[in-house]
Amino acid sequence: MSIAITTELLDGCVLALLTKENYYGYALTQRVQEFTPVSESTMYPVLRRLRKEKWLDTYDEPYQGRNRRYYRITDTGKTRLAQIQTDWAQYRVTVDQILGGTTDGK
């Protein structure tokens, strides 16, 4: 079973992975796919958008006669990730309360 992931959560997954190491696009897509179903055709527009928002930047490194574009999180991206993590924690508590059958916060 797979549950659709929101844009904000996908952003958070990408940014969180990039706090651990820099990835080139295909490798990052493969890494995200270990956790949630997402296609390359979805990931590359996400990466472009995150770069446009200045939440990550890129650099190129030669690999077998070609350049690989690597992505890394920026300080602004780390701030955004912290907000996503806060939002997720609050959302998770709310959903756990509803699905767990309690709505009084206990």
From TrEMBL:
Q: Which PANTHER family match?
A: PADR-FAMILY TRANSCRIPTIONAL REGULATOR, TRANSCRIPTIONAL REGULATOR RV3488
Locate the Transcription regulator PadR N-terminal domain: which residues? 14-82
Name the lineage.
Bacteria, Bacillati, Bacillota, Bacilli, Lactobacillales
Q: Which InterPro entries match?
A: Metal_resp_DNA-bind_regulator (IPR052509), Tscrpt_reg_PadR_N (IPR005149), WH-like_DNA-bd_sf (IPR036388), WH_DNA-bd_sf (IPR036390)
- Origin: domain of life: Bacteria
> Can you say what this protein is called?
Transcriptional regulator, PadR family
Q: Which organism is it from?
A: Paucilactobacillus wasatchensis
Q: Which Pfam families match?
A: PadR (PF03551)
Signal sequence, renumbered to the chain: none
